[in-house]
Design goal:
Number of domains: 2
Shape: globular
Number of strands: 12
Bound molecules: 4-diphosphocytidyl-2-C-methyl-D-erythritol, adenosine-5'-triphosphate
CATH class of the largest domain: Alpha Beta
Order of helices and strands: HEEEEEHEHHHEEEHHHHEEE
Radius of gyration: 19 Å
Helix content: 25-40%
Structural class: alpha+beta
Strand order of the largest sheet: 1-4-6-5
Largest sheet: 4 strands, mixed
Distance between the termini: 46 Å
CATH architecture of the largest domain: 2-Layer Sandwich
């Protein structure tokens, strides 16, 4: 490719909409020597989205609007994704990034991981880096345990740290979803420390294929016990969802978002505290 064509390829304006995930079942099975834990879970993508805008070439800049992202902007996962690729592709043109943050943070919805994974994919496509899905998953795993899932971004049974992904057939399009985040920020590393890893009492990989109506009391999230104990309001949210007709309800990841699965277009009109963030995905 000539220099002129290669430069042209790197001139782009792009907006993508990173989505969130929920965990359906989650078991922490082993504490590892590297400080992480082995787990098994089923990841399911849902359409609550951020907006990620990237302009190239530019001066390397990051700005955000919407929900305030805690911490220093230099540590934002979007920039970390850029720097990670730049290490291996030193000629990667600098980009101007704007993130509009809509996915609640510290909610177990993987929003930061989604932003990072979408950034990797965008740079790979627009700057024609030629990375395969497997290579992108390797990069994503360096940015966070939830991050590789968003490269696949389809229902997956996950093991390892969360990066060993096996796509599964799980179509929940016949249901509506209610996501409630009461504003409690749960630290993921704190949540892992509350658990004693153990082998699960049932095979999640098989039980997830049962009808959703059979999941209650079968498919569980190990984090619910300690996180509900620390924040009893969360158990109340889950209970309200069942009272409102949810077919299944669970906390997502290490919390604190609670998700209810309802019959299609039959999400109950539950009155929530005005400070809660409530999302209906019909
Ligand atoms: C709880 C889940 O959301 C379930 O999908 C994920 O396991 C969390 O993934 P994540 O937020 O991407 O987590 P990371 O950013 O990789 O790690 C944050 C911290 O959580 C703990 N951590 C995370 C993932 C894992 N498999 N074992 C861990 O022990 C570690 O203390 C780590 O320092
Ligand atoms: N683009 C980003 N969006 C959100 N958080 C970010 C971002 N970049 C860095 N962070 C940092 O990551 C932390 C957690 O982000 P995230 O929203 O992925 O957590 P979470 O909802 O608990 O997800 P998980 O399911 O991965 O635990 C925040 O406290 C924030 O400081």
């Amino acid at each position: 490719m000539s220099v002129a064509v290669s430069l042209l390829c790197n001139v782009f304006y792009m907006i993508v909409f990173p989505n969130c995930k929920i965990n359906l079942g989650l078991h922490v099975t082993n504490r590892r020597a590297d400080g992480f834990h082995d787990l098994e879970t089923v990841f399911y993508p849902l359409s609550v989205n951020d907006a990620l805008e990237v302009i190239s070439p530019g001066t390397l800049q990051f700005g955000s609007s919407g929900i305030a992202v805690p911490g220093n902007a230099h540590d934002n996962l979007c920039l970390k994704a850029f720097h990670l690729l730049q290490k291996d592709f030193p000629t990667l043109p600098r980009v101007n990034i704007h993130l509009h943050k809509h996915i609640p943070i510290g909610a177990g919805l993987g929003g930061g991981s989604a932003d990072a994974a979408f950034m990797l994919q965008l740079l790979n496509n627009k700057s024609q880096l030629g990375l395969s899905e497997a290579q992108l998953i390797d990069y994503a795993a360096q940015l966070g345990s939830d991050c590789p899932f968003f490269i696949a971004n389809k229902p997956c049974y996950a093991t390892g740290r969360g990066e060993v992904l096996e796509p599964i057939t799980l179509d929940l399009s016949g249901y509506s979803f209610l996501l409630v985040h009461p504003g409690i920020h749960v630290s993921t590393s704190w949540a892992f420390k509350q658990l004693t890893p153990q082998l699960p009492a049932y095979a999640l990989r098989e039980k997830i294929q049962l009808p959703v109506a059979a999941w209650k009391g079968v498919i569980s999230n190990d984090f619910e016990e300690p996180v509900f104990q620390a924040h009893p309001v969360l158990a109340g949210i889950k209970e309200k969802m069942y009272m409102g007709g949810a077919v299944y309800a669970t906390m997502s990841g290490s919390g604190s978002a609670v998700v209810g699965i309802f019959p299609k277009n039959k999400i109950a009109d539950i009155l929530w505290d005005a400070s809660y963030r409530v999302f209906k995905i019909r």
